[in-house]
Amino acid sequence: MKHRKGILLFMIFIMLAGSLELWAGNASANGLHEFREGEYLVNLLDDGDGQARVFKFTTDNKITSSNTNLRLYINQIEIDAKKYTVDYESNAITMNKAPDSGAEISIKYLIIPTFEWGEGISGKSQIGNALPEGDGSTRVFKLTTNYLLSSSKNVSLYIDGTKVRASEFTFNYTNNSITISEKRSAPGANSKMYFYFPVTSIAGTQASAGETTESPSSGGAITPGKEVESEFQVPEGESYPGHITLNINQTFIVNITSAALQPTYTSYIMVKNANGEVVRRIRIKPGESLTYSLSKLGLPSGGYYFYLKTVNQSGGLAASIPLFVPINNEPQHIQVYIEGHKQTYAQAPVNVGGNILVPFRAIFQSLGATVKWNNSTQMVTATREGKTIILTMGSKIAYVNGVPITLSAAPQLINGSTMVPIRFVSEALGGIVEWNLASNSVVVFQKEPTIPTTAEGEKEAKSDLSSSSPILEKISNSITAPTDIVFVIDTTGSMGEIIGYIKETVKKFVDSVPSGSKFAIVAYRDINYVDRYHKDLEFFSFTNNKNVLKTNLDKLVASGGVDVEESGLEAIHMAVNKLSGSKNSKRIIFITDAPVHDKGTSQGKAGFFLEQMIAELTTNKVILDAIAPTSGLAYKQIIQLVNSNKGKLYDINDASIMLLNK
């Protein structure tokens, strides 16, 4: 795959030598071979051929042995630095031993200020740039870039991974300066700051002689055989075309209008825990009003954020504003949430005449106040940011900075604990307090929660759940001898929930098949479209360790694809190849929600005919079971693959996390 991409990059270089390079709509200071991963840039090198030991890497960032730490990876495994040398002058790595043929080789190096890279954010092509780190007082930062800019529109700034509101900073493109407004504190010492500007604002590049190289007015070259999709149009935030409504009976209603209904658009209910990690991704159909039960989500008691999201397969993303939802699986007990986190008290909260009382020391400390107890006067004194609160046991008169306030319930002793009214305490310290009747919970926020809804902010929570999938149970029941199994999984943008479903259920599946079986994964997208962050085809080696398999599944990210058909035949061909040397029975579990590109009907977009894959499965005695659509073109194609060797087809609509808890 990388050889193919290398050839394509060379073709673009010849076509655009000396000009601004655009790759499938992405401005590329660093080309297709380099992208950001956390605080590092990853650079993809040529694949190994079993003989070459010297590998060149290309980057516009000036890296040296002193300004960053370069690390080498082969097949995603880091290589000991003693086994290779780096020539920073010629950008070359020499290895002691030639990597195997087909080995995937990459380098990773730490991002420092002025480093620059291409990145897609919410479906729009952007250039990312690392700014100088904060020092706690500086508010103006200089952007050092390879480009000349013509606009300050649609720029974005991230400080320590959190997106800064547009009202809290300004960008002057004439002198390339970013200014943090007084609305926000100056970035703290060692704060990591990343600034992004759209490709559309680029007027040219900085030439060494001070000349300007104009960007192509046509929008750049598109590599032959590679395509791009028109710009994503769904609005986000308050303008998002959908909403979630909570009901008292522990249900919620979801409605997304037909504005989000397109053949290559997919919509979800996203659920994050209090730490901002994704715990549920539920695929839904726009244009319908749907009612769901909170209890059917199978989540433990706690605070969660719900929002709606629509994506297209090339990475375009729009999301609604997150809604905080407390879930209480024991509604007979009162819960308290502060800043989204469930509180635990030695003495449980109590309801006294409609007032919720909580232990005084715990509530004040969780709200950031210092607290003192005077046993002789039976008084509680709490202070925070120039505000002093005094309460007296048994008295309904409290004082806030000396001003008397009448309470609806007096502090009192309950089971040896001094209890105070949570609403008064929280509001006196500037918090907003709500009573959630459905969950029997008090919810307190002192500041507006900042829950990222970008693709970059959707880290999945680690889970040890071992849910049982009815589909995988049926497949495992048909396996009676040790079998080598390859999961061939469509990882395009519409497959987020299905991938989550497989992740949650695969452990029990592994436990239920005969001993001696091994498992591998082929993840695929569409070889016709450029996704600079994810591979078209990726193989994860055979293992008999269910935890290793789960770890490999956790690496899968739903992204890319663009058109309806995907490169499923190429993925099945790879899986058959990997199974060819197996002494066990051979099986493929093919998981997709889309048709495949067939060379017979998609000339130039597919490398194989459907009939070829049917023949390969039959010749190699590979059973193919599929979790796929049971209607339309996908069904007409996939049922032929399934029938090639007595496999079975299961409806992908039954592969839903929601169904695991019914």
TrEMBL record:
Matches recorded under Gene3D superfamilies: Copper amine oxidase-like, N-terminal domain, von Willebrand factor, type A domain
Keyword Signal applies: yes
Record keywords, A-Z: Secreted, Signal
UniProt cross-references to InterPro entries, sorted A to Z: Cu_amine_oxidase-like_N (IPR012854), HMCN1-like_VWA (IPR056861), Mao_N_sf (IPR036582), Thr-specific_kinase-like (IPR052969), VWF_A (IPR002035), vWFA_dom_sf (IPR036465)
Membrane spanning residue stretches: none
Domain VWFA: 484-662
Compartment list: Secreted
Protein name: VWFA domain-containing protein
Taxonomic path: Bacteria, Bacillati, Bacillota, Bacilli, Bacillales
